[in-house]
Amino acid sequence: MVALEKAFERNTVVLADNTDADFFALAEDELEAAVQVFYVRGGRIRGQRGWITEKVEEVSTGELVEHLLQQAYGEATVELNQTQRRGRKAAQQGSQDTVAKHRRTAELAYRQDTVPRSVYVSTEPEQAPELENWLSELRGSRVTISVPQRGDKAQLLETVSENARQALALHKSRRAGDLTTRSASLQQLQEALELPDALMRIECYDISHVQGTNVVASMVVFEDGLPRKGEYRRFSITGDAARDDTASMYDVIHRRFTRHLEQQRKAAERGVTTGEVTAEQAEEDSGRAFAYPPNLVIVDGGPPQVAAAQRALDDLGITDVYVVGLAKRLEEVWLPDDEFPMILPRASEGLYLLQRVRDEAHRFAIKFHREKRSKSMTVSTLDAVPGLGPAKHKALMKHFGSVKKLRAATVEEIAEVKGFGPGLAERVVAALGGGDAPSAAVDVGTGELLD
User: Fold this and answer.
1) pTM of whole model > 0.70?
2) Can you tell me the distance from the alpha carbon of 248 to that of 244, in angstroms, rounded to the nearest whole number?
3) SS (H, E, C) 19-40
4) Cα 417 from Cα 409, distance rounded (Å)
5) DSSP states of 66-128 as a string?
6) CB atoms closer than 10 angstroms to residue 87
7) What's residue 284's pLDDT?
């Protein structure tokens, strides 16, 4: 065991020999935070600790760091008090002068080992001077709290931060994948919203744009509390519907459920079949994500977005799909026509599920918005290439099939396109600058963006 400890120490020399410090970092979302701490003594990593803490109230990152330092070193205070009590008990049993001397020496060593002279954190805590004074009293000498900006200490803190990010991701993955937890979250949400049926299918919608340009929307699908990525959809929003978020939300919800009603009508017209699938039916079934209505529609936003989504359903005569909104700032749950939001407990599994679905819709919308914006910039760039008219532009896109492949093409590959010579091919490559932007096709009937 001693040999293993020595080997461990030799392999973890990270700082100067005289460095005694604790490195704290955290990764957080709206509900939880993962904390990681590395203990460095004599320039070596002597230990590591990590835990997950729930954010039971709205706090800033600086306040959270303050709380975790109080928690970590508050435990050290308890240990010190226990050591002092053991010392007093020993003094009663032996030579008081000798025992007292050894007790003071042991206490000082314990203080200085438990509370190092330096504490490095990823974010400066609130009330940092007061924390430094408290830690200095606990240690018996000066303690500093700081955020390293460069050098070996900053690199080590980045390693601690990466550990925290991975710990939070692993915790969320395990939590989402646990069947009991998923069932509890779905049941809590159903009861909180007073819904009559179990939440078998949830859809969430998010709008993404930059100052009203390249407006897109996302639709993500969760069934039994798990994402069904094969049924995600993306929408392009143009014209009057792109004027603001509420108009965009109405447009997307209306289009999605118009398609649902249309597919229901076609299914009713077909009636009972033999099971044989025609080519026409196969094409229709390719859009089956629209065929199944959700129990619950979640929109990213507050009362305006909720009202727009509910109005779209009302205009279509749909009464068995429920709508809620999740406002990101305070994680408030908004219902149609309610004057005040519903506040779910911050540690509830139901709120965690709402947050996870909303964040997934936001991620999916942001991803596509970036792709579409990049594509728009590429098209604008091609328009400025001398000698590249609409016909050649169309030939170029038809040949490569996507902007991503076009931007990766060489001069020789572009010169193979009919009507392109080496000179024009070089101008196209120079204009595109060798970038990378995925493309997307648009279903002209619905505005849905397809891979």
Assistant:
1) no
2) 6
3) CCEEEEEEEECCCEEEEEEEEE
4) 11
5) HHHHHHHHHHHHHHHHHHHHHHHHHHTTS-HHHHHHHHHHHHHHHHHHHS-SEEEESSPPTTH
6) 16
7) 52
Rounded Cα distance between 315 and 415, Å, is 53
The helix-helix angle for 422-432 and 349-383 (nearest 10°) equals 140
Residue 35 pLDDT class (50, 70, 90 cuts): very high
Dump the DSSP string for 144-186.
EEE---SHHHHHHHHHHHHHHHHHHHHHHHHHHH-HHHHHHHH
264: which residues sit within 8 A by CB, 6+ positions away? 291
Nearest to 159 by CA among 252, 23, 261, 355: 23
43-57, 99-113, 131-145, 321-335, range with the lowest pLDDT: 99-113
Give the C-alpha separation, 437 to 370, whole Å. 9
Domains of the chain: 2-174 (no CATH), 185-270+281-366 (3.30.420.340), 384-450 (1.10.150.20)
The amino acid occupying position 140 is G
Contact (CB, 8 A) for 224 and 200: yes
